[in-house]
Each structure stands twice: as structure tokens, then as C-alpha cells.
Design goal:
Elements lengths: L10 H8 L9 H12 L5 E5 L4 E4 L1 H9 L3 E4 L2 E4 L2 H15 L4 E7 L2 E11 L7 E8 L7 H10 L4 H11 L4 H8 L3 H15 L4 H9 L11
Antiparallel strand pairs: 1-2, 1-7, 3-4, 5-6, 6-7
Helix pairs in contact: 5-6, 6-8, 7-8
């Protein structure tokens, strides 16, 4: 059973951050819409204060925190899986307070996650940094729904789609043959068909194209 993680969620503050200085504060409907928009982004997004307290987390970030692997919530504060991770987070927050962006990599029990720390100036007009946007690296090579939509548009078979998905996840032909339980010759045939159906000069070009697609997350979330 996954642990439930609770956050304070001043989404109106984040919405106002993106608004023009002369704009009126967003109403609850706008704030609610912003929350829904952030939940559709395939990167975990967290808004922190300068102490590391979690002000808001979108759906992928809440899922990451609830799993409590590399990233976790400790009494509402952003934490890592060990002292080394905690030290990196503290340093990134100090850098953000000085208006410096940074990227850190956290590792815990064989798992890793990259985080980008983006300082955000407050709305007081003095340019002082008061919040930090944290962007998490993506877990999957390509979202399943995105792959399915791409495959359908290019008339790929299910087997060809599976092979392409494995390639996007970084597997080689021999690994794919083992994972899919098929022969190497069959893998090569599927790769050839994918390249021909997509009109790409190489299978690497197909993988590059898919990796740049908008990653659409399924509405059926667990």
C-alpha cells in the first residue's frame, strides 16, 4: 500500500508568478485549471520555499514522493534517500537563493533521479527569490499512450510497436529478442518495417522523433 503524502497547495501563487505584474490575482477556477494543466506534464514538478518545504506537487511528483524511493517527503519537506542526497538538495536550495540554477542527481539503492532547481522571484517587485521550481527527470522513455498514438498513425503492428518501445527505452536488439521472447531475425524484421513505415533514414532517427513527441499521460491513473 502506498503512503499518502499531504501537501499545502497555494497554486494561486504559482499562477500569479506567471502572470503580468498588472494582472489581477487568479480566481479559484483559474487556479484549479492550472493544477490540472500541471498534472498533465510528464515531468514531476514541485514548488518549494527556500527552506525546502513543499508548497505544491503535480501528479507525477506526488507519485514519486508516495513511492518514497529516491525522493520523499519528510514532514512536508523535500528529502532524499540518504544524507548524501539531503546534502545535494540543501546545496541546490542555497544556490537557488542566490538566483543560480542547478541540476543534481540523486541515487538510492540502485535507482537514480535528476532534479533541476529553478529559482523564482516573488511578486513583491524587488526581484528577491522566494520560491524554487524543481523539475524531475522522466522515468519512462516514452509514455504508453504517446507510443500507441504514434504507432496507430504509422500503421505499426503491435509487435512493431513493442520493439520500438523497447528501443526508446534504450534496449539493444539482443535484449529485445530476450525480453520479447522472439528471434533476432524477427527483431531485425520489425525494425526494418518500422523504419520503412515511418519513412525514416534509420531506426535511430525514429527513436529520436518519438523522444521529441509531446508525452501524453493516460487519464486512467492508478
Amino acid at each position: 500500500m502506498e503512503a499518502t503524502v499531504e501537501f499545502r497547495s497555494p497554486v494561486s501563487h504559482l499562477a500569479a508568478q506567471a502572470a503580468q505584474p498588472s494582472a489581477l490575482p487568479p480566481d479559484p477556477l483559474q487556479a484549479g485549471m492550472l493544477m490540472r494543466v500541471l498534472d498533465e506534464i510528464d515531468h514531476g514538478l514541485l514548488l518549494l520555499d527556500l527552506t525546502g518545504r513543499i508548497l505544491h506537487a503535480n501528479y507525477p511528483a506526488r507519485r514519486e514522493l508516495s513511492a518514497a524511493r529516491v525522493l520523499r517527503s519528510v514532514q512536508g519537506m523535500l528529502g532524499g534517500g540518504g544524507e548524501a542526497s539531503q546534502s545535494k538538495i540543501r546545496q541546490a536550495l542555497k544556490d537557488a537563493e542566490r538566483d543560480c540554477r542547478s541540476i543534481i542527481e540523486l541515487d538510492h539503492e540502485g535507482e537514480s533521479l535528476s532534479l533541476a532547481f529553478i529559482p523564482l522571484a516573488g511578486l513583491h517587485g524587488d526581484g528577491a527569490i522566494d520560491t524554487v521550481l524543481v523539475i524531475c527527470s522522466r522515468r519512462a522513455g516514452c509514455e504508453t499512450l504517446t507510443m500507441q498514438m504514434f504507432a496507430r498513425a504509422r500503421h505499426l503492428t503491435r509487435a512493431e510497436q513493442n520493439v520500438l518501445a523497447r528501443l526508446c527505452d534504450g534496449h539493444g536488439a539482443e535484449e529485445i529478442a530476450c525480453l520479447e521472447g522472439i528471434r533476432m531475425s524477427t527483431v531485425r524484421t520489425h525494425i526494418k518495417n518500422v523504419r520503412q513505415k515511418t519513412g525514416a533514414s534509420s531506426i535511430g532517427a525514429v527513436v529520436h522523433r518519438v523522444s521529441r513527441l509531446p508525452q501524453i499521460v493516460s487519464a486512467l491513473r492508478t
